[in-house]
Amino acid sequence: MKSQKFAILILFVGLLLTGCNSTPEIGFKPVNPKSTPEAKQLLSFLYSLQGQYTLTGQHNFSSDLPRYDEVVHTMTGKYPAVWGCDFSFMAQGESVARFQHCGPMNLTAPFDSCAFNGRTKDELRQGLVDQAIRKHAEGRIITLMWHCCFPTGCDECEGEDIWRLSDRLPSQEEWNELVTEGTELNRLWKVQMDGVAKYLKQLQDANVPVLWRPFHEMNGVWFWWCNKPGDNGFKKLWIGMYDYFTNHHGLNNLIWVWNTNAPRDIPGDEAGPYEDYFPGVEYVDILTADVYRNDWKQSHHDDLLKVGGGKLIGLGEVGNVPDSKLYETQPSWSWFMVWGYCIYDFTNRTNRSSNPAVEAIYNDPRSINLENIDFSGKTYKLKTN
Predict the structure, then answer these.
(1) 290-306: per-residue pLDDT in tens?
(2) Closest residue by Cα to residue 195 from 155, 158, 223, 157
(3) pTM of the model
(4) How confident is the model at residue 268 (pLDDT cuts 50, 70, 90)?
(5) Which of 57, 105, 274, 383 is the most exposed place for a label (fewest CB within 10 A)?
């Protein structure tokens, strides 16, 4: 009897110490053993939601940072829980309008009249970091990506240098040089990474954890880092970046998000099987897929879970908000992030102030918006009613 009372006492004291609103230690630990406390807490928070809730998210372009957050708020009266942006590149040449859709830093925002905005790379990236720090202070979860030039162009290139279709991808010889230590191309790649790492370091110094999703859609056929399956292909590029950012730059605030495209078999626009490009569970915290064209196949969800062995999965980019019914059949998506202007209802181009699909998903009780997050104490928790 005494032992039973003692056990109850220990349990009661434990609850007092941990607090009712603390995030339990759930799921996998970060792949970086030196992860900051903030990164560990964010990852644990995401695991606490796994299979129950999905965070809403919105991508914003560095040339017009507030725009799409405010579009969402106009439509719904709410703000997304996840704030996304892109370190991007400086578009050059005569064909810049062809690539405005992805939001090169030095252009006006996509679908405005295409013009150079006259701002510098450092000014634009610093603005991104400053905005991310502000959004984090509000309780937002930060996710960042990087449309990057082939390393010989550093951060200034023509769009064709990024969107190298199948017949213009780097040769195997170029690829081998890129991922081999000590080569000139590998050195240029590191210089390029240095230029992003210094801004990620500012976020680390500000105690901001980042869902970091570089080299997205690698299983497609459109970017220069695409269409390189196997151990000596994309996997080697990812591991090289992980090692350089983690061990050389000491970036411990990053949660490593491996972001594929949903597999598809469209001639000239294919995306291969997840497993052919997966670098391994020891290098990936979260697995995500990009879904466009309303292609919500059950296999996109289930196969990603299988590859990750139960690790978190998410929707890195989507061209449309998911229908609430998706939560019933695909409950493990940790978040979705709408790509910029895709938040609009393109079936009604004259009305840009509302989108019934957006309103529906933001009002679904399984969606977590900013208003549902308690960020007091600088830790992520769900608000209690």
Answers:
(1) 999 999 999 999 999 99
(2) 155
(3) 0.93
(4) confident
(5) 383
- Give the chain's radius of gyration (CA, Å): 21
Give Cβ neighbours of residue 375 (< 8 Å, ≥ 6 apart).
138, 139, 381
- The DSSP call for residue 207 is T
Mean pLDDT of 57-79: 97
Distance between CA 119 and CA 104 in Å, rounded? 12
Sole residue written with tokens 């996840």: 82
CA distance 100 to 112: 9
CA 61/CA 68 separation, integer angstroms = 8
For residue 132, give every residue at least 6 positions away whose Cβ sits within 8 Å of its Cβ, in sequence order, or none.
83, 85, 142, 144, 203, 208, 210
- For residue 136, count other CB atoms closer than 10 A to its CB: 21
What is the CB-side half-sphere exposure of residue 196 using CA atoms within 13 A? 25
Domain ranges in the chain are: 24-382
Per-residue pLDDT at 335 exceeds 50? yes
Reported CATH class of domain 24-382: alpha beta
Distance from the Cα of residue 180 to its chain's centroid: 27
274 contacts 302 by C-beta, under 8 angstroms: no
Residue 17 has pLDDT above 60, yes or no: no
pLDDT higher than 50, residue 1:
no
225-230 LR contacts (CB < 8 Å, sep 24+): 226/169, 227/166, 227/169, 227/272, 228/169, 228/175, 228/277, 229/272, 229/276, 229/277, 230/276
Alpha-carbon dihedral of residues 239, 240, 242, 246, nearest 10 degrees? 140
pLDDT in tens, 272-293: 999 999 999 999 999 999 999 9
DSSP codes joined into one string, 275-327 = GGT---GGG-SEEEEEE-TT---HHHHHHHHHHHTT-EEEEEEESSPPPTTHH
Residue with tokens 């603005």: 127
CB-CB contact of 158 with 91 (8 Å): yes
Residue 4 pLDDT > 80: no
Q: What is the C-alpha to C-alpha distance for residues 296 and 322, in angstroms, rounded to an integer?
A: 8
